[in-house]
Specification:
34% of the residues lie in helices and 16% in strands. It is an alpha/beta fold. It has one domain: 3-Layer(aba) Sandwich (Rossmann fold), CATH 3.40.50. The chain is globular, with a radius of gyration of 21 Å.
Length: 497
């Protein structure tokens, strides 16, 4: 099939993308000035305009970051493209006229990794199905999530808000309807997307929200943000000030960010890290009272998203990604399981027998995976749907249940296994590390179909969520609609924050 070039005029200048079949792809379009030099550690500002058509046939630069922590090497894909214009977005569209629904994708990666350039996120399937997709980059690690006060706070949040403002102003030229925008994300991307409900500047920029394996429980306080800076500065050997950090190169800071994240996620000392030792996400949105006015669930419960359709869900075995890939699952004994359950706030004497009842052959490590999955992913997703429904807003719930055969079948329905199915890129080589070489098309049909239907119709295909029936779509090779799945284990977390 012969590729053709197609030019579209944006507010800042023309962009020339590539057309293949019925889909136009415009890649690496800058939505803000490169955050380097005098623009480093400052909120995003408009990009300089251009007059000649800008090449948009290749992905743009990715945010500076060090590789994933060692446990993910060879399992979670990563891609680095050099360049300063990392605040860019990519668009896939079936037409450059009309008013089609828009899905804005916010990638995950613990706020320190990931990019919009991964082949997994190729959105040809969405565009073929009549949905315009915009995949967004934002600043990562120290560049986007260190809180020094003044203008240097929640820069990653402001990046995404600026991208959404760009979408509002320009997406009609790419065939999208700025009044039908759904934001969607997985992991940190879902956490970021959910946090936007507590950002006044983001009001009206989106009309739907898909939060997959990340909900409203992952913001941090200003005190925790300052604790991070103090510990990071001590590791580097500099003063905990913006002036001192500005003297570090972006690449140098990225390496220190990776080392801190590795410490927090594998051997965090609670006396040093406090609550961050449990949340394991030291780089995260800060409830600063200005940009992020309150915790997202508080904002949603108060009706901040009552006009936004929310689809909230998680994977059945999210926590297996880190515990299996690191080998930690085999090091857990009964004492470690009980200690972890207590740290998460469970009454382990009552709770652990309940988890064992439905998993009679499970090892202590397997049980810990179930506990961590619930504390970190499933329960926050449920509480997001609960808060939205209680405020009178439209909410739906789902769980992704397909188990990957990777790592000898032990990976299961782990964190990130869903991603190739969301985009129907499960057949490409880059996806095989997570889903294997023979992942079933039916899983992709079902998960991708739910996303597409929600973006287009604000309805994934089953009944809305309410606190009485708790209707949930379980997605694998079939879609099974159930009420209140694993209710006994859900109730164990009542009153646990």
């Amino acid at each position: 099939m012969t590729d053709m070039l197609h030019t579209v005029e944006t507010r800042y200048g023309p962009v020339r993308g590539q057309t293949r079949g019925r889909v136009h792809a415009f890649l690496g379009i800058p939505y803000a000035t490169a955050p380097v030099g005098k623009h480093r550690f400052l909120p995003p500002s408009p990009p300089p305009p251009w007059r000649e058509p800008r090449d948009a046939t290749r992905p743009g630069p990715t945010a500076a970051r060090a590789p994933y922590v060692p446990a993910y090497h060879g399992l979670v894909p990563e891609l680095s493209i050099p360049g300063d214009e990392l605040l860019n977005l990519s668009i896939w569209t079936p037409a450059t006229d009309g008013a089609l629904p828009v899905l804005v994708w916010i990638h995950g990666g613990a706020f320190t990794n990931g990019s919009n350039a991964l082949p997994t996120y190729d959105s040809t399937a969405f565009a073929t199905g009549g949905v315009v997709v915009v995949a967004v980059n934002y600043r990562l690690g120290g560049e986007g999530w260190l809180h020094f006060g003044g203008e240097t706070v929640n820069l990653g949040i402001l990046d995404v808000v600026t991208a959404l403002e760009w979408v509002r102003e320009n997406i009609a030229a790419f065939g999208g309807d700025p009044a039908r925008v759904t934001i969607a994300g997985q992991s940190a991307g879902a956490m970021l997307a959910t946090t936007l409900t507590a950002v006044p500047r983001a009001r009206g920029l989106f009309h739907g929200l898909i939060a997959h394996s990340g909900a409203g429980a992952n913001t941090i306080s200003p005190d925790e943000a300052h604790l991070l800076i103090d510990n990071l500065a001590a590791r580097i050997g500099v003063e905990p000030t913006l002036v001192a950090f500005e003297k570090l190169s972006i690449d140098e800071l990225s390496v220190h960010v990776r080392d801190v994240l590795n410490e927090v996620q594998t051997a965090a000392d609670p006396t040093k890290w406090g609550r961050l030792a449990l949340t394991i996400l030291p780089f995260a949105p800060v409830v600063d009272g200005s940009i992020v006015t309150t915790e997202p669930l508080v904002a949603i419960a108060a009706g901040a998203a009552s006009d936004v359709a929310i689809l909230s869900g998680s994977n059945a075995e999210d926590a297996r990604l880190i515990l299996v890939s690191s080998g930690a699952i085999d090091q857990i004994d009964e004492a470690a399981l009980a200690a972890a359950g207590t740290a998460y706030g469970l009454d382990v004497g009552a709770a652990l027998p309940e988890y064992r009842r439905s998993r009679p052959e499970a090892s202590p490590g397997d049980l810990l995976c179930a506990v961590v999955t619930d504390w970190f992913f499933r329960i926050p997703a449920i509480r997001l749907a609960e808060a939205q429904a209680a405020a009178g807003g439209p909410a739906w719930a789902f769980r992704f249940d397909w188990r990957s055969p990777r790592l000898g079948g032990r990976l299961g329905a782990a964190h990130a296994v869903d991603l190739p199915f969301v985009f129907k890129t499960h057949t490409i080589a880059e996806s095989h590390t997570l889903v294997g070489a023979h992942a079933p098309d039916r899983v992709a049909d079902n998960l991708h179909g739910a996303y597409r239907a929600f973006a287009a119709e604000a309805d994934p295909g089953w009944a809305p969520y309410d606190p009485l029936r708790r209707t949930t779509g379980l997605i694998a090779e079939t879609v099974t609609i159930v009420e209140d799945p694993d209710a006994t284990e859900r109730l164990l977390w009542d009153g646990v924050r």
